[in-house]
Amino acid sequence: MQGVGQGRCDRPPVDPAYFDTFERYEARKKAAPDPTTLIVVDEADRLHMNSLEQMRSIFDDGRVGMVQIGMPGIEKRIARFPQFDSRIGFVHEFRALDSTELQQLLDRRWTPAGVTLPKEPFDAEVMARLVRITEGNFRLLTRMLTQIERILSINETEIVSVAIVEAAGDSLVIGQS
After folding, report:
1. Taking the CB of residue 129, how many other CB atoms lie within 10 A of it?
2. Whether 141 contacts 149, CB under 8 Å
3. Mean pLDDT, to the nearest integer, of 47-56?
4. Cα–Cα distance measured from residue 143 to residue 116, given in angstroms and rounded to the nearest whole number
5. Beta strand 38-41 with 65-68: parallel, antiparallel or unpaired?
6. What 3-state DSSP class applies to 39?
7. Do 109 and 133 contact (CB within 8 A), yes or no?
8. Are 122 and 159 contacting, i.e. CB atoms less than 8 angstroms apart?
9. Exposed/middle/buried for 161, CB within 10 Å: 0-12, 13-18, 19+?
10. How confident is the model at residue 145 (pLDDT cuts 50, 70, 90)?
11. Side-chain half-sphere of 166: how many Cα atoms within 13 Å?
């Protein structure tokens, strides 16, 4: 007689038909690809044709989904390659946040991952300056808030003022503010 934990005999008695069904299910489960596998490609508009062909090949393998992010006009470029274009499910253009949406985001104290800002809400003038500088550009807002955190830390202060926001804007390469 085998001791506990020694091979198949340590399982409780189970109807063989049930156990066979369970084993088949487990084998199929292991063979199925993970449905959550996703490749995200930022700046896809900068890819050369060979890279796009490689992405098409990976997609055709059928085990992953893909999201491509690029500048406006990427859909026109890809449309010139019907073998690639035919695999695109949909195109979505992200627009800049309007001032109301941006203010709501800031009112909710949203910050980029890893960024910690003081808990007190921004005053109206700080909020207006952030809206004006970023013009609803989400990526620029992320960079601004990260820079504001850095400036607060350097100056050992917890107050986000207009001067702090302007210093953050001046330290980023963003054009006229």
Report:
1. 22
2. no
3. 87
4. 13
5. parallel
6. strand
7. no
8. no
9. middle
10. very high
11. 4
Task: Report H helices in the chain.
Answer: 16-31, 49-60, 74-79, 82-85, 99-107, 124-134, 138-155, 162-171
Whether the Cβ atoms of residue 174 and residue 168 lie closer than 8 Å to each other = no
Give the count of beta carbons closer than 10 Å to the beta carbon of residue 118.
14
Nearest CA-CA partner of 141 in 152, 151, 129, 153: 129
Residues 6+ apart with CB under 8 A from 109: 117, 119, 121
Q: Residue for token digits 């400036």?
A: 151
Q: Provide the Cα torsion 74, 77, 79, 81; round to 10°.
A: -130
As a whole number of angstroms, the distance between CA 46 and CA 80 comes to 15
Taking the whole predicted model, whether its pTM rises above 0.70 is answered as no
Residue 59 exposed, middle or buried by CB count within 10 Å (0-12, 13-18, 19+): middle
CB-CB neighbours of 149 under 10 Å: 20
